[in-house]
Each structure stands twice: as C-alpha cells, then as structure tokens.
Write a structure and sequence with these properties.
about 190 residues; two-stranded antiparallel ribbon
Length: about 190
C-alpha cells in the first residue's frame, strides 16, 4: 500500500512515535517508555532526524511525546473500525496544529510537500504533517490500514502497508508468538 511518499513517511512515523512514547503492553510484557537519551535516540530514529545528525532537544522530545499521546487514540479507534470518531479526532488535531503546506527540498531529495504548524503548538514540526497524513488515510478507501496489534498482551499500533491489507500484528515477533501459542493449544 502506498499512501503517497509524504503520507507514507509521516503515518509510519506516527505509528513509531506511538509505539515508542506511550506506555502499555508489548509482545506480552509491560512496556515502559524509555527515558533520557534512550528516548531521544528512539524518537530520532522514528522521525529520521538521525539522517541529519540532529538529536532532539529535551523540549522537542516532550513535543514528540505529546504528539504520540494525541495520535494514539486515532489508531485505537481505527483499529476498532470506529472511523467516524477517529476522523473527528483527526479534525481536532488539524485544528490544533493548523498545518500549512509548502514545498521543500533537502538531503538531495527532489521538491516535495511538507506540512508544518503555524505556531508553537507544533514545536516539533511533525504534528501538522502527522495530522495531515492521518487525515489522508482516513479520508481514503484505506482507513482500515491503521490498527492495533491483535496479539494478546500487546497494544502497539501499526500501519498496514502490505499489498493485501491483512496485517493484524505490530511485528513479526507478535505474529510468531500468537501462531506458536495457537499451535501449542491445538496439539494439547
């Protein structure tokens, strides 16, 4: 599945931020959000600032954590096929971040579209882009591509970019864990 290069990037980054910066369950175990430099490094990888060698400042880390908390319910609602509620939430995010489109060229890439917020409500610059990306997915025939892991003991989120649109797990590890448990139950 391809939502368009910009949307692919920001929606995938949104899922990565949610999975890094929100507590819960992961692969059958409790997941605690990392702290300090470990959190900054994980966020840098999620939003690809590591390409430019720029590590997020503590203020930006806080902004990314705020974005993750704001967009997690979108994945939860979409995962439950509650697209009207997910769309209403994304509309609130669009109002909050007020993304403005503009063309940018960096890192030897061709001109491409970016969306950033008007003011300090979008300190990271990603809130606007993520809200536009989620709006584009929810406003398409592919809203069901946003979801929550179906593995027991896991509440991580995912974006289904598979060709057939049948992804149910956040990772291969969760998929294998569930398949192994199902096999063990069948052979008893």
């Amino acid at each position: 599945m391809n939502f368009g290069s910009h949307n692919d990037t920001v929606v995938t980054a949104a899922a990565a931020l949610v999975n890094i910066a929100t507590p819960g369950q992961r692969r059958g175990r409790r997941y605690d959000v990392p702290t300090g430099p470990a959190l900054a490094e994980a966020i840098a990888g999620a939003v690809q600032t590591s390409r430019s060698g720029v590590a997020p400042t503590p203020d930006l880390v806080a902004a990314y954590v705020d974005i993750a908390a704001a967009v997690r319910p979108v994945f939860e609602l979409a995962g439950d096929d509650r697209f009207d509620e997910a769309s209403a939430l994304v509309n609130r995010l669009l109002a909050r971040y007020q993304p403005i489109p503009y063309l940018d060229r960096h890192d030897d890439e061709p001109w491409h579209l970016h969306f950033h917020g008007r003011d300090t409500a979008d300190r990271s610059g990603w809130g606007g882009g993520i809200s536009v990306g989620l709006a584009a997915v929810l406003g398409s025939d592919h809203a069901d591509r946003l979801g929550m892991c179906q593995g027991s003991g896991c509440d991580r989120v995912f974006v289904d970019i598979s060709r057939n649109g049948t992804k149910r797990f956040c990772s291969v590890a969760c998929q294998n864990r569930v398949k192994a448990a199902t096999h063990r139950a069948r052979t008893r």
